[in-house]
Specification:
Pfam family, one: Mrr_cat
GO biological process, one term: DNA restriction-modification system
Keywords: Endonuclease, Hydrolase, Nuclease
GO molecular function: DNA binding; endonuclease activity
Protein name: Restriction endonuclease
Mean pLDDT: 88
Strand order of the largest sheet: 2-5-4-3-1-6
Strand content: 15-25%
Radius of gyration: 23 Å
Number of strands: 11
Order of helices and strands: EHEHHEEEHEHHHHEEEHEHEHH
Helix content: 25-40%
Length: about 350
């Protein structure tokens, strides 16, 4: 058995289709009209790409073939798939039910696929050690996760109910052969930006638990120019933070903020409760912050609430934090010391 990383588009634009159809698709432009299994093997895929993309560099075509061929010829029933999600700080896992198939009558983007059963589509990235997060950060669209005992660790996590690897519930036997133990690292690129965010995420989770998360959100809002009132620890009646602009905070918008530091996604009822509290304190707008993200019922409501409520998950919170980091309170920056670095952009980002 194997663990495969399969991405749902550069921007995660195919994620919902993957989930709804219980399939992972190979959405490679230019291959829509060809049943790829007819080319037999890796060399056949290379030859096909030379025909389809004659102006591309040979090394580029080899790189593409090394992703397309495994999807077609190597992904098998019983293998597992990890899909790094783009719109939430989570990973999705599936079991392969059927290998590659080609449907020439399907919508052109979704003709190459493997059938899967989704096991969990919202496993927090913070549940994994940095070694696996490095592996999951590979830039490849399709690749086998062969390092760091990735498959064994993920299967152990599933047996333990997807508990965090750091809580001691996941024990993985080490069965490396001598050759594997001393193998040279491959020529793989990984997402440096995502790796840095993963490290920031872990520090935030460790140092801003519970009420500390509300303190952090309050500091971000102050750095954005709001006056804030942060409720003390304990029962708060659904009011974690009140924020408004102006010298004394008397201007609009008047924002009521509720902060949930839990790792699990919140239900629609939490959003509804925020609406009630907004009316109680005469807030014009609301902000619901949940570190663990939101269940589908909340996501579906987001467009309806666009002019009244904003939703921040862990990724949104980090985006807002980084945008105003230099303006944050000194005590916050002391707990989260960051520095700016320059790195080369990935070719597809240039």
């Amino acid at each position: 058995m194997a663990l495969w990383l399969i991405r749902a588009g550069k921007y995660g634009q195919h994620e919902q289709r993957f989930f709804n159809d219980s399939r992972c698709y190979l959405t490679w432009d230019g291959t829509e009209d060809i049943g790829l299994s007819t080319v037999k093997d890796f060399e056949g895929v290379k030859a096909l790409l030379a025909t389809l993309y004659p102006d591309e560099k040979p090394k580029t075509r080899i790189n593409w073939a090394s992703q397309i061929a495994p999807f077609v010829f190597e992904v098998k029933k019983g293998d597992w798939v990890v899909l790094p999600r783009k719109h939430t700080s989570a990973l999705a896992f599936a079991e392969v039910l059927e290998g590659y198939s080609f449907n020439p009558t399907a919508e052109s983007t979704y003709r190459h696929s493997v059938k899967v059963k989704w096991l969990n589509i919202n496993v927090p990235r913070t549940a994994f050690g940095q070694d696996l997060l490095y592996s999951f950060g590979a830039f490849m669209t399709v690749c086998r996760m062969s390092k760091n005992d990735a498959e064994a660790k993920v299967r152990a996590m599933e047996r333990a109910g997807w508990k965090s690897m750091s809580d001691g519930a996941v024990l993985v036997p080490r069965n490396k052969s001598p050759l594997e133990e001393y193998a040279e690292p491959g020529d793989e690129r990984f997402d440096v930006e995502q790796s840095a965010r993963d490290q920031i995420t872990k520090v935030l989770q460790a140092r801003f638990k519970g009420h500390g998360m509300a303190q952090l959100v309050g500091a971000i809002l102050r750095a954005q120019g709001f006056k804030t009132h942060v409720s003390p620890p304990g029962p708060d009646g659904g009011i974690d933070i009140l924020a408004a602009p102006g010298t004394f905070g008397f201007a609009e918008p008047r924002i009521c903020v509720q902060v949930k530091s839990q790792q699990s996604p919140v239900e629609r009822a939490v959003l509804d409760a925020l609406g009630g509290v907004m009316k109680k304190v005469s807030a014009t707008h609301g902000l619901l912050v949940c570190w663990g993200g939101f269940k589908s019922g909340v996501d579906r409501e987001e467009a309806q609430q666009f002019f009244h409520v904003r939703l921040w998950d862990a990724d949104d919170l980090i985006d807002e934090l980084l945008a105003v980091y230099d303006k944050l309170d000194a005590d916050i920056r002391a707990l989260l010391p960051l520095k700016r670095v320059w790195t080369l952009a990935a070719p597809e980002d240039v």
